[in-house]
């Protein structure tokens, strides 16, 4: 068995790590070089592109405005997880975590409507 070598940081073709050249976030803030934080760069690069796309989709859907089923205006916004408020008619609706109507709820509504129509005929 061979003896393990001590790891000294980034070496080889990438060069050596120079601790004197590291700049702090405060230095970057004063220079105006800190990148803007958006939905996609909240998730680190190590998680991959597919997870970044999923997070972006969730962020867009949860911050969007939706149509109110009571008054018909596009004023429904997310208050908390699963709680949606209409700013116009002041109604509160329970829905999904990221959208007002989940696919399961939409399927249930259509099934109930179909069964109600069958019962009337």
Automatic annotation (TrEMBL):
GO BP, one annotated term: translation
Keyword list, A-Z: Ribonucleoprotein, Ribosomal protein
The keyword RNA-binding is annotated on this UniProt entry: no
Region (Disordered): 1-20
Residue runs in coiled coils: none
NCBIfam families: eL43_euk_arch (TIGR00280)
Family: Belongs to the eukaryotic ribosomal protein eL43 family.
Name this protein carries in UniProt: Ribosomal l37ae
Organism: Fusarium longipes
Record lineage: Eukaryota, Fungi, Dikarya, Ascomycota, Pezizomycotina
């Amino acid at each position: 068995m061979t003896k393990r070598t001590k790891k000294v940081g980034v070496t080889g073709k990438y060069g050596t790590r120079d601790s004197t050249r590291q700049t702090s976030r405060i230095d970057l803030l004063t220079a105006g070089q800190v990148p803007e934080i958006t939905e996609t760069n909240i998730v680190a690069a190590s998680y991959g592109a597919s997870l970044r796309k999923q997070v972006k989709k969730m962020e867009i859907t949860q911050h969007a405005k939706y149509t109110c089923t009571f008054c018909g205006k596009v004023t429904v916004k997310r208050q908390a997880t699963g709680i949606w408020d209409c700013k116009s008619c002041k109604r509160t609706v329970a829905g999904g975590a990221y959208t007002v109507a989940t696919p399961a709820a939409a399927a249930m509504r259509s099934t109930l409507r179909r069964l109600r129509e069958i019962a009337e005929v």
